[in-house]
Write a structure and sequence with these properties.
single chain, mainly alpha
Length: 165
């Protein structure tokens, strides 16, 4: 897993260049939000179970077919798996938030997830909606709405996006 600093340095190192003004500005921006990132991660961690529970409740209220016979969250086992997956997304979004880089999401969550969901017949549209709900709840809880806070969630929804909710 890389963070914003190692990713930026890697790009400049690969091209044999010194850090230029743009690179320094990117680093300053990352460090300027460092304390807020750590505070947000701490708040998310302390409230993770509640965030997942509330997000799941809202998702199933919005998309009740998910918990009806034939739905992807029908049966206790599938329902629990859905909430477990939401917890994974939240945890890895928190890692990416602190790192200021979405590589961890690509490496640990998104690679292979589309194939797994496809083979199981799980529509990703409802997954995307669940992630969007969690993002809104995190923004509300943390009390900030900067790109640094929402980008991990937006990255997952872009990568998993489809319109079959």
């Amino acid at each position: 897993m890389q963070d914003a600093v190692t990713s930026l340095i890697g790009v400049y190192d690969a091209t044999g260049r010194y850090l230029d003004r743009d690179a320094i500005e990117q680093l300053n921006s990352y460090f300027a939000t460092g304390a807020a990132r750590l505070k947000a991660a701490s708040t998310i961690t302390a409230n993770a179970a509640s965030l997942v529970r509330q997000s799941g409740a809202q998702l199933f209220e919005e998309l009740p077919d998910l918990i009806r016979p034939g739905g992807n969250a029908y049966t206790t086992r599938r329902f629990a798996a859905c909430l477990r997956d939401m917890d994974y997304y939240l945890r890895y979004a928190t890692y990416a938030l602190v790192a200021g880089n979405s590589d961890v999401l690509d490496e640990r969550v998104l690679q292979g997830l589309r194939d797994t969901y496809s083979s199981l017949g799980v529509a990703t549209g409802s997954t995307v909606r669940g992630i969007q709900i969690m993002k809104a709840k995190v923004v509300e809880l943390v009390g900030e709405n900067g790109d640094w806070l929402t980008e991990p969630f937006d990255h997952m929804t872009r990568e998993l996006g489809e319109n079959n909710i």
